[in-house]
């Protein structure tokens, strides 16, 4: 068992799961046709909120994570109201500016955020689980694991449960009245409004949901890395989150999920070009815009997989 549980691979898997949450946060916002580049800012709000609460005020980690997600949601709703007047590239520029304002604020508010140096010594999710397990009389060697393996495995499993729950929630929402309202707004906003859909309410709701998931991912990121700095939430992070959705496809939730997995794992698989990953991302975007602007995964691809699955089941029966 020791040979199969590699802390490095588990850490990469943990970052993939966090990026899936970020991809889903972008999908929710895009599901109403709103192109937001402020998710790095919302992510930083979640990360710094839980960090300050757990380090400075000795709050439990779960309280800090929830508080970070809630505060990011509140800020997202506040930002969403003026954003209603903007569309397309203008909305993208405005939300990108919001993210940069948050980053500059984190750099200059040194008494609270320690400026550009960042904050270290953040309570680690895996180490907290290890300490709790030892307190109840359970040790990793009972499973034949070393401490670092147990820490990495526990982080991965916790994130996996969270990601599955979040994906299940938004899949269910997609087939609800809210999901149908989102789809109608994205297809034709004026027609949706004429049919009685409250455009303002659902756009703000989507903006708030996207901000909350991004803040939630940021809070988890802080407790997985145990160190954050404003540079972690700069312009490149906002673009990276957008690429997850654009590359994978924003029509269905599986698109950003695939984009997050592929684009996070690719630099690790191709280590010799990892320093040039943003150049590779740019080239991929150019190719995608030219040959498949809807992304790799769309409704037609999902339907094709479903038909193929039905066909295989009929043959087996």
UniProtKB/TrEMBL annotation:
One of its GO terms (cellular component) is plasma membrane. Signal peptide: none annotated. Its main location: membrane. The chain crosses the membrane at residues 12-30, 61-81, 88-107, 150-171, 204-229, 241-266, 278-297. It holds the Pfam family BPD_transp_2. The keyword Isomerase does not apply. It is a multi-pass membrane protein. Keywords: Cell membrane, Membrane, Transmembrane, Transmembrane helix. One of its GO terms (molecular function) is branched-chain amino acid transmembrane transporter activity. The keyword Transmembrane helix applies. It is found in: Cell membrane. PANTHER family: HIGH-AFFINITY BRANCHED-CHAIN AMINO ACID TRANSPORT PROTEIN BRAE, HIGH-AFFINITY BRANCHED-CHAIN AMINO ACID TRANSPORT SYSTEM PERMEASE. This is Branched-chain amino acid ABC transporter permease. It comes from Siminovitchia acidinfaciens.
